[in-house]
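Filed under: proteins

Residues; backbone shape codes:
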Amino acid sequence: MSTSQQPDPRDRPARLTVGVVGAGRVGPALAASLQLAGHRPVAVSGVSETSRRRAAQMLPDVPLVPPAEVLARAELVLLTVPDDTLPGLVEGLADTGAVRPGQLLVHTSGRYGAKVLDPALRAGALPLALHPAMTFTGTPVDVQRLAGCSFGVTAPEELRLAAEALVIEMGGEPEWVAEDMRPLYHAALALGANHLVTLVAQSMELLREAGVAAPDRMLGPLLGAALDNALRSGDAALTGPVARGDAGTVAAHVSELRRHAPQAVAGYLAMARATADRALAHGLLKPELAEDLLGVLAHGTDGAEGEAR
């Protein structure tokens, strides 16, 4: 669904008072985005001093109150707390009578679907799972990044249009995810985004060790092109010594990593094995070259060292 398409006015939720439980990086940004769409943030809760400062920056003049008070003031409540905290929070709010019938209760966890909100559903709330597939900084730039951002949406069928309309109002693209597919969906995002940060950070550290003065400037164009190629072409975009079957080069890499960054060896070998498997499966790595390469990967530093290229 394109962001240029607007929901039918009959399906568009009324202007709502909005509350945020958990002033981490996500909640204030979503509330600020909803404010731009005409909704009215009225309350936010946050524990740490950092979260309180963030709420003050992103949602100025919105009072900081305890979670139960957020629910008392808001028609639409964003539960933006860590995944492991969410089930207990929902149960606690429902058990203490904080949840009101007809209240929209939205969580932003990628791991969970709507069922984690069942205690609130039994109290009469309307449960929605809206997970933005985006990395957040906790600054106003996050509101801009929501434009065109995909949201993993899970909700009861009767609330599907309302859920999708809220996402569109935040500038996002709703993508329906089945309840039982939420953990796999979230694992896929973590594999691509979270691990990418680790890989890039390691790469920059190694370049500094190699004497490169501006590793970010060196990596920017390379990684941008690699990401674009991968999104366009998938496995056909694989390049480098593993995909070519250059066992000697890979052995030289492993040897140097053991000397300069032993903590990176396990990750390098794991990713190289995964790359080799995919390159073989898609006909990019010639079988006659794969045997030596896989031997190097199996034994860490076996195989002749070659010139890196």
